[in-house]
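ok so heres the complex, two chains, lmk if somethin looks off
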Amino acid sequence: MALPKYTEPHYRIWHYIYLTICGAVFFFLIAPLFVIFPLSFNAEEFLSFSDGMKRLDPDAFSLRWYQDMIYGTKNPWGLAAKNSFIIAIFATIGSVILGTVAALGLSSRHMPYKGLIMAVLISPMIVPLIISGVAIFFFMAKAGLAATHTGIVLAHIILGTPFVVITVTATLSGFDHSVTRAASSLGSDPVNTFMKITLPLILPGVISGGLFAFVTSFDEVVVVLFLAGLENTTIPIQMWTGLREQLSPTILAVATCLIILSTLILVTAELLRRRSERLRGINR
Amino acid sequence: MSSETKQILTTDGIPLEVSLKKAERKNKIKAFLLVAPLLFFLIITYVFPIGDMLFRSVDDKMVTQMLPKTFKAMENWDGQELPDEEVFAAFHEDFIKLVEDKREGKLSTQLNYTKNGFKSIIKKLRRASKKFEEGNYKEQIMSVHKRWADVEYWRAIQRRAPEFTGQKYLKGMDMYVNEEGKIVSVEEDRRIHRVLWLRTLEIAFFVTVFCFLMAYPIAHLLATLPMKYSNLLMICVLLPFWTSLLVRTASWMILLQQQGIVNDFFVGIGLVADDNRPEMMYNKTGSYVAMTQILLPFMVLPLYSVMKTISPSLMRAGKSLGGTPFVAFWKVYFPLTIPGIGAGCLLVFILAIGYYITPALVGGASGTLISNQIAFHMKSTLDWSFASAMGLMLLSGVLVIYWLYNKIVGIDNIKLG
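and the predicted structre for the whole thing:
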């Protein structure tokens, strides 16, 4: 952002102060993530940079914590990762189906009590997780689903649907309903119209909602803490336990993997957002 | 006759108005049927359980059901002097039944909530009751321990007679019903919950303020920079947003520990002595720093989306009309960003007030919030009705803010990413 030539000196100074502040805030946001990366390759058991690391001595770096993560003797990460993926995938599928169908209804201009229903559907996102956790635990305990995968998947569907509802209704707000009417007038039944016309057009919104639902489930720890038994342990649960007891570098290896995963998800989400805006004709 | 000729009929011979209404109703039902699966799913698995919490928080049937005969007998007791033989006999009968079912431990836990000191005397009574002889239970029970001869303890039992009670809510506010039935506060040094509520509000408030102060300049920069630069910088906001909460908390634990990088840096620049490194974690500072960084994206994104819509020509117009850049900013730009400020602040405040994981990990004893207390009662003391009561108190606060948010921003205007 170049300043015009005629800018007075004290505004020029102010401008540079402003840029410095912005730089500091960006640093504050992003730098903590990059601390984890080098430390996960630490050859020693300490969670700070050893002298060897500061000298960039190759002996000070190792992959031992990654080995420990994968092959460690009493390592919980394999089971946790398997559970996390299974739960997150099923929760995503459930949230996407329920959320998309609901969003279709909500976007209809005939929908009665739209505001009230929307408020109920979004509420799991707003209500503090600890309260959701307590409430869902009471339900699952009564239904006999505590400490089961099914229970956790259902809980994560509850937490994930608001994101799908929000992203899909946002996509549908720019949706040209005349194309579905055209399809019906040409003799297509509603299901066919949805699969062939509506879904391809709103797909970016559906997928990005699905990504939110996936991340919500994959990262969720409060509700799982109430619901999970030993068999249902997930990555966040293991991290939580590890962080409470003892910060071991293995956790940093896992954290690095999670950061890579979130980078992939971020890139996908961004590409989808741009594609969706292009499809809906929004040019910024 | 004339009205009939005016009426427009459809091809089926039905008046058009009726036909349209029918179609409208059909559309309404169709739209509702699409929403219905999710709505009913949420009502059953989420809304009802929250209602169940309300029920649990006031439910006090347990003791009522454990001592049915005692409470029946106590109906005629005025609570002044020790109850007479009838009450003691009824209590004995109830108690023997409880011991047979091995439930007297539950009774002692419950009564202990009302008045400390029940645990041991119930244990003593269980042992002694095996040798009780028939008749004159008053004497026999009173001889077990002197507390059984203390009218205070019998009043405490009587207070548990009603099936519903609001005492958990009072306890959440550090108040209780005293012997005379008045609502009073507990002693100054035992008011832990009030301290927690205030601290939760304080931390949520300051985290919101810090987030706002940090987010405003960078949202402005992102909104005014050319696309190719702003997209790159946007990653700095979005990557933390998408990264696991636990990963971000872990990175703060590494940074803030006493031998951590921030402390190393402070020692390096000579700000603090090496042997006098400050504790930056396991206290309020830890909660503040970590929560601010974690919630910052939730402030930046709404601000950015509002600032993006403000045309740069407005600022130029302000300046060309004689305002200094500061005046133009304050009088033109800032007021236009208020919707974004409202949205961001309410969102961050709502999220901060219910935070659990981060304070539990980096907050220590002085940086924990009300959520941590709820989790503690859910998992450790197992006083679920108290956890429910506190949860609902927190929820009612959040719902007020949610309602405000809906009024100001509109719930369907929430944007993600």
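quick notes: Chain B touches chain A through 95 residues (CB under 8 Å). thats all i got rn
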